[in-house]
Amino acid sequence: MPKPLRKIMQEVTYHCFSRCQGLNQLLMDRFAKKCFIEAVKMCQEKYKFELNAAEIVREHFHLVIRTIEDAETISSIMQYIKARTAEKYNRATGRVGPFWNERFGCTIVEESEDPEQYLFNLLWYIGFNPVKKGESRDPRENYIGFIRCYLKEGFEAAIKITIHHYFYRLGNSFSECVMRFLVYEDAYRKRMALYFC
After folding, report:
1. Pairing of β 49-57 and β 105-108
2. What angle, rounded to 10 degrees, do the helices at 74-93 and 30-46 form?
3. Does residue 97 register a pLDDT over 90?
4. CATH C-level class of 13-195
5. Average pLDDT, stretch 65-83?
6. Strands across the sheet containing 49-57
7. Residue 180 belongs to what H/E stretch?
8. What is the pTM of this model?
9. Hey, where are the domains in the chain?
10. Which residue of 49, 126, 131, 136 is surrounded by the most CB atoms within 10 Å?
11. Contacts by 88-94, CB closer than 8 A, 24 or more apart
């Protein structure tokens, strides 16, 4: 059965994710992480888009990308990032064969019932991914650490992060937005506690 066609839209927010070939934990390797980050930076220089979140977990990654009107499509952006990561890693390590398992998956935030709520929950879900895998103790300690951009004004993560415009609707000042954003972290921690009971 053929896979459904991907929705290609501009000026929307995509949650994108992709897994390593055979679910191998290739992204656990520090060098692979470096290749991924360099690929994202190269893509940011080449294409016009907003990167709202990025996190790496052992065998997969998550990106939240907002496409720009009259700029590159989500397919072009993701194809570039995945191809450059694989190319850099395979060339440097002598590895042969595909790096990625399949085409990337994605959902469009604005198509959810409540896009703002969905995005805030999604950001904490992505932030807590490495915590659930035992790779960090707190989203603030993750390898890329995008969540700190939403918690500390002016923070620079390993990759340039553009704070999503929904975040600024949470309050009249950055500190007020942070305070309300942290409510979503508390809710996520409670859900995690129930899950692991």
Report:
1. unpaired
2. 140
3. no
4. alpha beta
5. 96
6. 49-57, 60-67, 13-19, 105-108
7. helix 174-195
8. 0.93
9. 13-195
10. 126
11. 88/35, 88/38, 88/39, 89/26, 89/31, 89/32, 89/35, 92/31, 92/35, 93/31
